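Q: What structure does this chain adopt?
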Amino acid sequence: MRIARRYLVEGRVQGVGFRFFTREAAMREGIAGWVRNTPEGQVEIVAEGESESMVRFEHAIRHGPPRARVEAVRTEGQLPSGDYQWFTVEG
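A:
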């Protein structure tokens, strides 16, 4: 079953390669969507994929790359839009 989620990741997540780590995790799992930094110092992610792939993806972003320190991940369920063909790094 295809699902969609929006994530806000907090902690030391900017300037440590988090967006590119997220893109690699998404590509590995066949997930589409995007990732970007927010002006408040968070990373925002919108992702769509098969439910099992999304579980693995979420596990990866909760840990992040080696230089990151993820303190919190806020998750919001969404309806899959089907608008995304691949996963991109914005901004």
